[in-house]
Amino acid sequence: MKHRVLFFVMVAFLCLHANLAFAQSRQVTGRITDPNGHPLVASILIKGASGGTSSDATGAFRLQVLESADSLIVTAVGYMRQSVAVKSNTVNVQMIADEGFNVEEVVVIGYGTQKKGDLTAPVATVNMEEAVKRTVATPMDAIQGAVPGVQVVSGGAPGSTPTVRIRGVGSFNNESPLYVVDGMFMDNIDFLNPNDIEDMSVLKDASGAAIYGVRAANGVIIVTTKRGKLNTKARITYNGYAGFQTPTNMLKMASGQQFADYATAIGRKSVVDASIDRFNEPGNTTPMSTDWYGELLRSRALIHNHNLDVQGGSDKITYSFGLNYLDQDGIMDAKNFHKKYNIRMQTEARVTDWLKVGFTAHINNFNNFHPNNAAFRQAYFASPLYPVYDDKLELADPVKFGSSSPIGIPTGFWFNNPIATAYYNHNESKGFQILPSAYVEANFWENKITFRSQLSQRYQSVHGIQYNPVYYIDNDQRADRSYLRSAQGRDSNYILDNLLTYRDASEKHHWSVLLGQSAREERWRETWVSANDVPASQEFWYAGQGAQGLGSATGYGENGFRNAGVSVFARGTYDYDNKYLLTATFRADGSSKYQTKWGYFPSVGLGWVLSREKFMEKQNLFDLLKIRGSWGLLGNDGIQPNAGYAIVNSGNAFSGIYGSFGENIGARVPGYRVNRFFTQVRWEIVEEWDAGIDFALFNNRLNGTVDYYHRETQDLAFDRPIPFLWDRVYGNWGTVANSGWEFGLNWADKRGDFGYRIGANATTLKNRVTDLGGLQNIMNGFPEWAAEFPSRIEVGQPLNYFYGYEVQGVYQNQAEINADPIASRYNELNPGSTIKPGYLRYKDQNGNGELDESDRVNLGNYLPTLSYGFNVGVDYKGFDLTVAFQGVAGNKIHNLNRAMRRKYPQMNADQAFMNGLWTGEGTSNTYPSAEGSVAPWNLQASSFFVESGAYLRVQNVQLGYSFNLTPSIPFRVFATADRPLIFTNYNGFTPEVSGMGFDSNVYPVAATYSLGLRASF
């Protein structure tokens, strides 16, 4: 009996062992990648079981699973949780970026980090995986349209710096945000390669930015570059692309025949006849037609970018090393380009369990050849009735460029040959920059207390060379002597930060305290020298005794500044049960720039996570619902350091004394008068409050944020006139307010092998001047044409709004003119230059029957009232496609190209203008007649020259395919179209006009088409 029992037990055991062995014999392998095919370190669990593993640095994993297991759960920080069916022994998973509100995500803030769920300020984080899909030269161009509250206005010239505005404009002096790159303060981050950036945070409100005090009034953008990871094998990644740029939205100018018809209509047929006589074969009366923009622009301009990254780490040391090379040609068909070389180094060592040290360095070398943008202005003016080259101009040298003077069109700057302007130009800058940073960090008392000391430095040297050769085209476009200007600029800055942080918790109470001290110094010096009669060969481009070039200089100058500052700051955070949140910040800044030495910048933020309350436990709609509010003060020290000066006036106008003897009897004796002005200039102050909601729904697939902000710039600094004198004095006189709404919404989901995501953001802006120190308004405008085409700063109105008459249409016949009190009154007073059919009709705003100053109104301004962006992305197995859009609305552009006709009636015009001209009753109610287009009545500042700046641009399209070249080498190929399409009604190359919105023909923005690849080894 005992033997039977033992036999059955053994059989049962063997069967069970066999079954278990069979069930455990299944091994699943695969790789985890991000949406672009890059490897991810992720956690892989067996659904319904306790087993699991993690992927390695290559994204690969191995896992034993029961035969009955049907799916795996894959999670990674920053990506959506996925449930993946196990249909075979190979499971490859492409994760979906979690664009939403992940409460555990760590966000970089000023002098530290914080969990996203604990934030009380509207800190925006940039998805750098999406940003690097853009084929652009600068990181800020890469995030255009991607962050609510941030407006980026791109330039077209290679290497140009984009204009960046955060929540409007509150200063006449400086509107750019502060950039903090690995602890160093920067004015821009053009030198960085987007591939080198690991994290980018935008501190938009006072609560988040007040920790930077006097530098933070325009917002703060914090950049953290890539770091190595502990216990990670060395990984080499190459990412690069090559492609070409091409002009988009080409501005079509009038053809030769259109210009000839127009010139005839305005009484200038002589230039048409002169052109036909000079350039045509006998009997050919068809006017020649030069397409100046076609001649000035390349159809293809090359761009290529290459990036190599090495990362890894042991159990004690991490390291990261990056190399980057960018080469971008300009679309102007002349010498213009941007080249830069970047080296990035980072290492961190854990010396002991409580002490670590680190070092980071960025080395940047660049070479920019700047185009002469005046050529684009001249291409709009230039008549199509003469050629680019003219062999009949015997005196033209060294190149036989054509001139408009032989056909009777006056020359001068605006009518110079634009191709020659672009050709006779050498404006080059070369330089290098190094940003080293070293730190030591110690953890005490079970990592509750941390002390960190960091020294960050910046040194930059830039050498600029401008050279104009001897040449001759006509009596106006010429250079009888060569000219050389050589300038050397040097920046030398440092920041020393000492930070003490205490973090602790007790049951449901969590708190942290940061105490900091910072000292900084900024130095800049530029010296320049100029010389004439310098040979064209670059080996002689030196000036000075003993130099290889000219013996002595004809000009010399030096500029510079040196500023120092010291700061102390503190930040405290507290939360109870992760439901009730408090953040308080205070910074005291001392500065050497102003008579007032110290400024104080407090802020406070509150948050309430409603979704953690008991009354929300049973609801199934919200995964997260948090409301927050904040208030604080910020400073802007980007203004003139002082305004004290003395002016000595001399001459007869300043004397009432007459001579009484000799030759001076009865003659006024010259006198002197000293005017003394002095004001206590200080930094501008921004007071801001913000209220917002963060939410996530449907298992975190839908998430978003809504904010309302109000920021007021006080002590606005500007020059104001002194009563009864021509002089002006600079001081803190005004106040400007910006307010609006910000919206962000994202949806992401995965259905089997198919994943998709949709995102959108929008920002509204209301900008108003609320005080000008007693003044009601200040006239402004385009520097050369302010009197004719003004903008205005006025209490209760937006900054620099366009100021002029409102056009109501075009007079169609004489009866309309006679019935209009304004026109009939004008004709009565001006019988020699009467208003005729085909002239513009202006609105009589006050109904007094006259067109006078009181009829000028606000015609709009350059700031968009709405900025927005949206994107769509899909992926299926190895394929992925993303499309991004960006646009603005509510802003205006002053088309100064058309308005210049006031001074230069001989100029050409765009085809839309020519085709729209009034030619008889009913033909146009928008454009004047040809005769009227040069009449003074129609060339006054008016809404005719102010156009909508609204546009919608297809910002980026990328199609990619990811696969494994070998099991350990992930590979991705992609095709990208950057800025391929734009939809706008503006009559210009681009509605992206920097400055105050006056378009005098900017460098066009190009579309870029490229192919690229990424591989990791």
TrEMBL record:
<dbReference type="Pfam" id="PF07715">
    <property type="entry name" value="Plug"/>
</dbReference>
<dbReference type="InterPro" id="IPR039426">
    <property type="entry name" value="TonB-dep_rcpt-like"/>
</dbReference>
<comment type="similarity">
    <text>Belongs to the TonB-dependent receptor family.</text>
</comment>
<keyword id="KW-0812">Transmembrane</keyword>
<dbReference type="InterPro" id="IPR023996">
    <property type="entry name" value="TonB-dep_OMP_SusC/RagA"/>
</dbReference>
<dbReference type="InterPro" id="IPR037066">
    <property type="entry name" value="Plug_dom_sf"/>
</dbReference>
<feature type="signal peptide">
    <location>
        <begin position="1"/>
        <end position="23"/>
    </location>
</feature>
<feature type="domain" description="TonB-dependent receptor plug">
    <location>
        <begin position="116"/>
        <end position="220"/>
    </location>
</feature>
<dbReference type="InterPro" id="IPR008969">
    <property type="entry name" value="CarboxyPept-like_regulatory"/>
</dbReference>
<keyword id="KW-0472">Membrane</keyword>
<keyword id="KW-0998">Cell outer membrane</keyword>
<protein>
    <submittedName>
        <fullName>SusC/RagA family TonB-linked outer membrane protein</fullName>
    </submittedName>
</protein>
<dbReference type="InterPro" id="IPR012910">
    <property type="entry name" value="Plug_dom"/>
</dbReference>
<keyword id="KW-1134">Transmembrane beta strand</keyword>
<dbReference type="InterPro" id="IPR023997">
    <property type="entry name" value="TonB-dep_OMP_SusC/RagA_CS"/>
</dbReference>
<dbReference type="InterPro" id="IPR036942">
    <property type="entry name" value="Beta-barrel_TonB_sf"/>
</dbReference>
<dbReference type="Pfam" id="PF13715">
    <property type="entry name" value="CarbopepD_reg_2"/>
</dbReference>
<keyword id="KW-0813">Transport</keyword>
<keyword id="KW-0732">Signal</keyword>
